[in-house]
């Protein structure tokens, strides 16, 4: 286990004294005898002490360091590159990978980290997920030993930034129709030339290592490449940022434009072929999202509850006194705890080697759907004040729509599940 | 552990060879490497071998003995009294109670039994729940030692039938306004006279032991009584059946009419006072319902899936081929597995002494709501054929409405949760 | 205009004095200055005096004569054949047809009649719709002059009962795959032999005239036949009743089994071919359903409101005092008035020759969906008492599921609309 | 009728040739024989030629002049003050007022104008509504003749900008608890001093005339004042803009801060007292919102449909080919046409003197709820591309949340309706 995480875990008392009261609930929950609205079905009972300590470390960092930055970042679409380094220092990047400077924590612990980051902002979580679950997982699962040793430590520390280029302008839900091509360099041995265009790529404008999936011209099969920006001749790799986004504005998003970009064969993943490669990474990320979305939802609940208790309307009653308000809170709390339990179960199954991709489709879909639906309903609690970004709720609502959509839109996962349930496909 | 259950558990091979293929999935699931639509997130991994064996025993009994009877029972509102004895023989009644001839299984195992019974019919499960969670739990938790020893063994075997009289014609969601009265017999020492009326009482017409909650005239406090029918003089106790029900027709429901019915002080629960008594029992029953509703939903899924695969429309495609059908199945499967995980978590917490009533409100409400909503949507898969009772779906739909309503209507539990979340009550 | 209807219309004062207060609202609504929850957006302003008088006549009949019979009819699946004659006497059958003893009222008036019948029970409305919109419309639109003159007057008076055989056991949503065959009699000139099987046919067991759609063996095209039971040799026509229905139990439903049943060429519709024939009739019926479903919903609203005002829970407050109850009522009232306005608009367009089938798909789908959804939510107002059939709500809920399903299940109409909106079909 | 509107109406041919094809549908719809997805139930049949011409004029202006500006305005929270003058020139401001330079059109025509503006952006519509329905209506209904003659013509032309100050920082849904105070000037006769604070006031930073509702200190009753900025001494009136809004960013919003601001008694509305004044104006605005929300929804439908036809996924099929997509479109189209019919009905009733406030609550609530819900579902059609503001859908989604919330949040209108339906209030 990585030492920075461990150190954090070994100093809970110190940490606790420094954080605001609302963040402390988890640490004391084991002895609670009363209903705890922040963990209604005691999911925390399912976690080891180490996992809880890791969550606490992540929570402390996120609340102390990320929360104060998010409003400005979101307003101005201004992602702070230093965040990756800070996360790297704490061991939050690629946390479930063993070795290469990574923390080697359980999938559950990794999910809890994700949840704490997304409690602040889905965009911050996106930036971390892309680095960890997509870029690092791709290299760790499929790269040569040399590639792992060369790139993973820098990515783990956040010295290098990574991204993951799968989606193309014309192919979102259907990556199999990919148009990006890799062809053998006509003269240089051991070199491929990549051409094509990827879009909606989180982190692409700041990435040093870009995982790019392309069809090998000779076979028509999809292969993966770790493109190192420093090695790309001018004009062969462009990563323009996409601005004026309606959500996830605290993350940075861009395109990857490849024009005969040369990549050494050593940077191609040697074995994996077809969609197995990208889908392995996506499954890792999606499992993180299933945890993360619950973090965002819990923040919405927390804020709506506080607002409902403080805001008075009609004869001085707090909004919390009204049935229509209570129902919104009860529904949201229920979905948050159900989703957390389900994500925990799948994470445990993954570590036990019993997880299937359909399980991940199921929890990614449901947790995102419910986080989105409930955040929208909780937004109503704020009335007109929801229009002020200082209440944070509209940001979560906007973010969660994209979270529901990317890495498999809800309907796509429904069809994946439908196929698994019936044995019949209904995509076309 | 009760021997009849244990014997069943020790012979899985023999049993498996006798039951239809569709019932076998649970027993073999541990070794499945593929997605299992009947247990998508492998809740079964959370159960011990004993718990799984108990579930299998219950499932076998329910599918072989109850399923063939349910159509006629529902059509004709004809509950077979022998079912209680059959269940008693297998150890399914009061299964989580230690001693007194009860099986003494875990709360999880008890929940799994409930689930298997409700997979067949919510009415059958109601009959069992009332006997186990309400009547037997009341006596076990609150009765004198003498009362326990005298009544529990007969109830455990199903030789005696029990019921639970709390709801009154004018007081459903608000039992605190109870009108039934117990007053000291004017002449007979050690005797109370009960007067009042209870309604919607499952099993009342066939009950030998009727738990009746009444306000003690002297204190105005609610107290519990185990009324033994055999000891009631003629005219003091009537239990007319309520017929022409729109649901739960396979169970028997009635009133309890008490007219100065004499009950010995020994049959009054000595300590418990107020709503603590009935709510303790209701919490036990509600936890069972949270499991049971998932059983009914799983049966709906199973039947809708089979129908969708067999029914062809438009160019010979099975309904299962259509996106709108797949989405219904995916949604239902998701809710069934989430609900099962949550109920399992609460059952484990209960055995660990960490369960609160609000947790039970949460899962009772959510699992019933989702079972009802999904069963209705799955009903659409059957098109016009849903109108035939031989497809069983309309029966589940009708039942689940009542299951959502009784033992705390969904809105009432929302307000219980709202109060627990906000600290403010919104009942009035 | 038919005289029996007209007489009714000319005696509003007399009628008003005889009907209960709750039924009177419509007649006085023109002068209301306050919000009228029974007609919140004053749809009645869109009706002529004649139309209002016809609605009043129908309402009076339905409330006085049908309402008292419905509980027993539904319990025992016992449709009273005399109802058709009573309706015939009042001019309610085939009401929008000109001539042949029919009332010749506007499509709006016809819709209002439908609404009043379904206010009592969807099954009663089904029996009327099948007679009017399906059997009579088929003959009137497509039959020879001789056939019209011979059959329509008897059907209009309810002396003859009619039904409509389109749906087959294997073909519900996709009637184009019909298997029933009509072939030329091998020896008798001018005679067709019909063979095949129809199911879920309202009124079939009591029908004298059965409209049967069959594929002409020689052409493979669908043609329509008016089969007269009295002319069918023994063993060539069977119409067994379907019992143990889960809904619409106050109507009678059966199969039509044809075994080389001889039908004279005069009874074949001479011109219409393909699905144009049945769809024309279905569109007429579906427009009626769009009105009718609003009648059933209004009855649910009326009953739920009354219950909510009379039932007291928690400190003596009526349920109506609680926010969660008020929201249910507000939602239902909104959908009822929106649906009524839309149906009225389409009925007016139909009389103006501007109605398209997609309009009818739209209102049939939406009004049925909303009636069903709201009736289910209103059912919650009744708590456990909803399980008693004497509150009538469970009957409406069960009925409305079938009403949503038959004559085009909601999803099928969604795809019809989707095709009309996009120009692309998604059925297969 | 105002001449600028009329001139527009008399030149339809010229206009039609200048506008893009997608805008032409309304003008030709009368002769359509096929289903028109843009007006599925032919609401246009309910409008007079004048009303249709006015709608066409408004549509042309909005599509040609507003649509090109909205993206930049929304991105930069940059409302162009000239828009009011342009609208004034066309006669769109205070259009239903007779005299004072206003167009004097029907309430229906006024609603159609609103719909066309909100088809572009709810913020633009907000700016217009505040000017027309709130500020101008307040003066027209309650001001002295002198005030009307002095202020209305400038407001009608857009030379003057107006706003409406009711909501306070602590009182949104419950304006009766207002804290802003008007007290008699201690020394100046005929002058009131206004002190207090209003928030979320559309147009306040640019307003010349600010309608302010305040409690008269002497009576405690709410009274209305037309505050003219030009007459306020420095430091007595501040109207800081509220920036960083999460929605309605194309409109300008601010506070009104009054610090002993002197207002002449001539500028106080002489008769109206209590909440009657502001509610009269709000009802006028809400009726406009009920139309406007349908315009925004129709734009979402139009854009989603176009995207679904152009975007190909899986074997080259357009998204429009998929059932799950078609259902989203069918649902939205249905709600758009139902909502338009209902708003039209209420507008007609208003002109006939038969409209009640509850009718307006009903349509404001339902149309906003459905516009919001459907826009969110249609957003899913765009997948990840919805995150780009160039697809406009996220803007509508964000806007419609506020539209649902302001001028009576959905739940508040539900309680208004609940009270009207049951006669019992459930606010507290």
TrEMBL record, chains A, B, C, D:
Cofactor(s), names only, from the UniProt record: FAD
GO-annotated molecular function: fatty-acyl-CoA binding; flavin adenine dinucleotide binding; glutaryl-CoA dehydrogenase activity
Acyl-CoA dehydrogenase/oxidase N-terminal domain mapped to chain residues: 48-159
Gene3D superfamilies on file: Acyl-CoA dehydrogenase/oxidase, N-terminal domain (1.10.540.10), Butyryl-CoA Dehydrogenase, subunit A, domain 2 (2.40.110.10), Butyryl-CoA Dehydrogenase, subunit A, domain 3 (1.20.140.10)
InterPro entries with a match to the protein in the record: Acyl-CoA_Oxase/DH_mid-dom (IPR006091), Acyl-CoA_Oxase/DH_mid-dom_sf (IPR046373), AcylCo_DH-like_C (IPR036250), AcylCo_DH/oxidase_C (IPR009075), AcylCoA_DH/ox_N (IPR013786), AcylCoA_DH/ox_N_sf (IPR037069), AcylCoA_DH/oxidase_NM_dom_sf (IPR009100), Glutaryl-CoA_DH_mitochondrial (IPR052033)
UniProt domain Acyl-CoA dehydrogenase/oxidase C-terminal: residue ranges: 279-421
Pfam families with a match to the protein in the record: Acyl-CoA_dh_1, Acyl-CoA_dh_M, Acyl-CoA_dh_N
Gene Ontology cellular-component annotations: mitochondrial inner membrane; mitochondrial matrix
Protein family membership: Belongs to the acyl-CoA dehydrogenase family.
BP terms from Gene Ontology: fatty acid beta-oxidation using acyl-CoA dehydrogenase; fatty-acyl-CoA biosynthetic process
EC number: 1.3.8.6
Subcellular location: Mitochondrion matrix
First-listed, main subcellular location of the protein, grouped into a coarse class: mitochondrion
Keyword set includes Transcription: no
Pathway entry: Amino-acid metabolism; tryptophan metabolism; Amino-acid metabolism; lysine degradation
Domain Acyl-CoA oxidase/dehydrogenase middle intervals: 163-261
Protein name, entry field: glutaryl-CoA dehydrogenase (ETF)
Keywords: FAD, Flavoprotein, Mitochondrion, Oxidoreductase, Transit peptide
Enzyme class: oxidoreductase
Catalytic activity: glutaryl-CoA + oxidized [electron-transfer flavoprotein] + 2 H(+) = (2E)-butenoyl-CoA + reduced [electron-transfer flavoprotein] + CO2
């Amino acid at each position: 286990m990585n030492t920075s995480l461990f150190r954090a875990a070994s100093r809970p008392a110190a940490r606790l004294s420094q954080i605001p009261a609302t963040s402390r609930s988890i640490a004391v929950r084991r002895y609670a005898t009363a209903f705890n609205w922040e963990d209604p079905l005691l999911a925390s009972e399912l976690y080891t002490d180490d996992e809880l300590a890791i969550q606490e470390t992540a929570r402390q960092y996120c609340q102390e360091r990320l929360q104060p930055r998010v409003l400005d970042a979101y307003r101005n679409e201004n992602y702070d590159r230093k965040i990756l380094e800070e996360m790297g220092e704490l061991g939050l990047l690629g946390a479930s990978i063993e070795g290469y400077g990574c923390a080697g924590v359980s999938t559950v612990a990794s999910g809890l980290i994700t949840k704490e980051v997304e409690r602040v902002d889905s965009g911050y979580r996106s930036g971390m997920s892309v680095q960890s679950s997509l870029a690092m997982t791709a290299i760790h699962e499929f790269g040569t030993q040399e590639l792992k040793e060369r790139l993973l430590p820098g990515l783990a520390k956040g010295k290098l930034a990574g991204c993951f280029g799968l989606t193309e302008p014309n192919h979102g839900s259907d990556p199999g129709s990919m148009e990006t091509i890799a062809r053998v360099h006509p003269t240089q041995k051991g070199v491929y030339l990549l051409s094509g265009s990827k879009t909606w790529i989180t982190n692409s404008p700041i990435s040093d290592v870009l995982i790019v999936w392309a069809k090998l011209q000779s076979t028509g099969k999809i292969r993966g490449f770790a493109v190192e920006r420093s090695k790309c001749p001018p004009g062969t790799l462009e990563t323009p940022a996409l601005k004026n986004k309606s959500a996830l504005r605290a993350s940075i998003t861009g395109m990857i434009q490849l024009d005969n970009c040369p990549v050494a064969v050593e940077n191609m993943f040697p074995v994996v072929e077809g969609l197995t490669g990208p889908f392995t990474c996506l499954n890792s990320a999606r499992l993180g999202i299933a945890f993360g979305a619950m973090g965002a939802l819990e923040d919405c609940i927390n804020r709506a509850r506080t607002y409902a208790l403080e805001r008075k309307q009609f004869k001085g009653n707090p909004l919390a006194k009204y049935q229509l308000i209570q129902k919104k809170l009860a529904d949201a709390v229920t979905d948050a705890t159900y989703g957390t339990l389900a994500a925990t179960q799948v994470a445990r199954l993954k570590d036990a080697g019993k997880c299937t991709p359909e399980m991940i489709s199921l929890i990614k879909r449901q947790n995102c759907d419910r986080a989105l639906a409930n955040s929208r309903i909780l937004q109503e609690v704020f009335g007109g004040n929801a229009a002020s970004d200082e209440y944070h709720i509209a940001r979560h609502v906007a973010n969660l729509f994209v979270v529901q959509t990317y890495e498999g839109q809800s309907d796509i996962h429904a069809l994946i599940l439908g196929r698994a349930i019936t044995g019949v496909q209904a995509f076309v």
